[in-house]
Specification:
Blueprint lengths: L1 E12 L2 E12 L3 E6 L5 H8 L5 E8 L2 E2 L5 H7 E4 L11 H7 L13 H13 L15 H14 L4 E5 L7 H18 L2 E5 L3 H7 L2 E6 L2 E6 L1 H4 L2 H8 L3 E5 L6 E5 L8
Parallel strand pairs: 3-8, 3-9, 6-7, 7-8
Antiparallel strand pairs: 1-2, 1-4, 4-5, 9-10, 11-12
Helix pairs in contact: 3-5, 4-5
This protein binds adenosine-5'-triphosphate and magnesium ion.
């Protein structure tokens, strides 16, 4: 069953649309990755899906409800969003930022419950940031901040998660770990996940489906086994790559072609 239905979505800013005629379905419990060059419209698409842009046409339905007629609180109960750029005040502590994810579950004047405190402790352990909890956001590294914002989205406990480049700023160990956490949430809790990602080899093993965006339009969508071809990568990214089989997963993997000749 589709949890998210996107029909003929076009959206952009004051100077016009930057994504056009986007249609796709996201099944409940599915993991989908949006891939495309810088400026191809990935972040714009993620924002448009949540009704965050004014210049917009088309339809988006989440759990059967028209997204553009829902209020911010109703949307926040369905979708947690980790943006690519954060404009939040850095005066907050790690714990305070993650608690913000619980606000939509709290009644007015009720404050933080024992249950909320327990949930955020668990999430801080899962994302390995417990040791940072009293620290101010301003005093964290880029990768630590990224993990805090992912933790906040998890604390929101929504059926759908949108993550705009979750692996940016993370070292290779945390890149794999974050994707494993997302996969666990998908498999054990049935969460539906949509990510944008520049590391194609990271997206391949975790995604049931990929969407290639090119110039604001869908160039192709389908399972990684079908979509990851030298031709598609050349068309979408204007770069030549070799495609091999990953030793562990048997899935395709791209290998960048370095211009530098290997010494004999
Ligand atoms: P990246 O991989 O660099 O994150 P992206 O695929 O997420 O790129 P978007 O951020 O969606 O790309 O941008 C798509 C286009 O829209 C770009 O040409 C960009 O310059 C333009 N754009 C983005 N934000 C705005 C804005 N606030 N006002 C006007 N144009 C914008
Ligand atoms: Mg972006």
């Amino acid at each position: 069953m589709a949890i998210l239905e996107v029909n003929n979505l076009s959206a952009g800013y004051e100077n016009g649309y930057v994504i056009e005629d986007i249609s796709f379905l996201l099944d409940k419990g599915e993991f989908i990755s949006i891939l495309g060059r810088n400026g191809s419209g990935k972040s714009t698409l993620i924002k448009a899906l949540q009704g965050l842009l004014k210049n917009i046409s088309g339809k988006v339905r989440a759990e059967g409800k028209d997204m553009f007629s829902l209020g911010p609180r109703q949307i926040a109960k369905k979708i947690a969003y980790v943006p690519q750029m954060f404009s939040l005040s850095f005066e907050f502590s790690v714990k305070e930022i993650i608690l913000m994810g619980r606000y939509i579950h709290q009644r007015r004047l009720e404050g933080t419950s024992f249950e909320d405190a327990k949930i955020i402790e668990e999430i801080m352990e899962l994302t390995e940031i417990s040791f940072l909890k009293e620290k101010k956001m301003a005093h964290l590294s880029g990768g630590e901040r990224q993990r805090v914002f992912i933790a906040r989205a998890l604390a929101q406990d929504t059926p759908i998660l949108f993550l705009d480049e979750p692996s940016s700023h993370l070292d290779i160990s945390y890149q794999v770990e974050i994707y494993q956490i997302l996969q666990r949430l998908q498999e054990e809790k049935g969460k539906t996940i949509l990510c944008t990602e520049h590391n194609i080899n990271l997206a391949i093993p975790y995604s049931q489906r990929l969407i290639f965006l090119k110039g604001g339009k869908i160039y192709a969508q389908g399972p990684p086994e079908k979509l990851i071809t030298e031709k598609n990568i050349r068309e979408v990214f204007q770069t030549d790559v070799d495609i091999r089989e990953n030793l562990h997963s048997g899935l395709p993997e791209i290998s960048l072609i370095s211009k530098k000749e290997k010494k004999p």
